[in-house]
Amino acid sequence: MHKKFIVAALAAVALPFAASAQEAPDGSRAFGIEPYVGVGAGYHDFDRDRSTALGGAPDSTDGSLIMGLAGVNVPLGAFFVGAEGNLAYGFDEIEWEYGAAGRFGLRIGESGLFFGKVGYQWIEEERGFKDDRGMLYGMGFEVGPQDIGLGGITGESGVRLRLGVDTFENFESIRPHAAVILHF
């Protein structure tokens, strides 16, 4: 008797989850592959205590960036996982940045995402600062036209606005950035 009750209770709890896993919050398929590309800008500011090639001066490298990125998301119901590559041209003391990261997060509303990411980044610096490489951590969100009330203007457009912030290695830097994402 207890076994039948437990099985019935588990089925009653699991059934809504199974039904909701078939569709994402925006009504699209819950499973598949969503490639995307983007272009954006940001500012990377380092504040490290390590010495550099400039006679032992502290490394306070910083600079504006123009970024390109490409990646793929795999929706898993209301969640997603993915991978992303980035390339950035820097101004001031940063010459180039490039790297790759794994992404994970929630699909929110009609076309929104809230995400975290972990990856590896290479940074080529100018003016005697040494090049660097290491772990990159970040978080951010993306909103599409449907989420900000412009669905009627843009229709089924695959455009999203991304705002995010990243940090390098042991929280040695902060990199706020914004990008326009085109997903397919």
Total separate domains:
1
Strand content: over 45%
Poorly predicted ranges (pLDDT <50, ≥5 residues)? 12-22, 51-56
> What's the CATH class label?
Mainly Beta
Average pLDDT level: 78
Per CATH, the architecture is Beta Barrel
Overall structural class, as computed from helix and strand content, comes to: mainly beta
Question: Whole-Å distance between the termini?
Answer: 52 Å
Walk across the major sheet and give the strand order.
1-2-3-4-5-6-7-8
Helical coverage, percent range: 10-25%
The main pleated sheet reads as:
8 strands, antiparallel, barrel
The count of strands amounts to 8
Rg, Cα atoms, Å: 21 Å
CATH fold type? Porin
The rough form would be described as: elongated
Give me the number of helical elements. Answer: 2
Order of helices and strands: HEEEEEEHEE
Structure commentary:
The protein has one domain (31-183): Porin, CATH 2.40.160.20. Strand 3 and strand 4 form a beta hairpin. It has helices spanning 2-20, 151-154, and strands at residues 34-46, 62-76, 79-90, 94-108, 112-125, 132-143, 159-168, 173-183. It is elongated. By secondary structure, it is mainly beta.
List keywords for this structure.
184 residues, mainly beta, Porin, eight-stranded antiparallel β-barrel, 2 helices, 8 strands, elongated
Summary?
With 184 residues, the protein is mostly beta strands.
Draw up the topology in text:
Elements: H1 2-20, E1 34-46, E2 62-76, E3 79-90, E4 94-108, E5 112-125, E6 132-143, H2 151-154, E7 159-168, E8 173-183
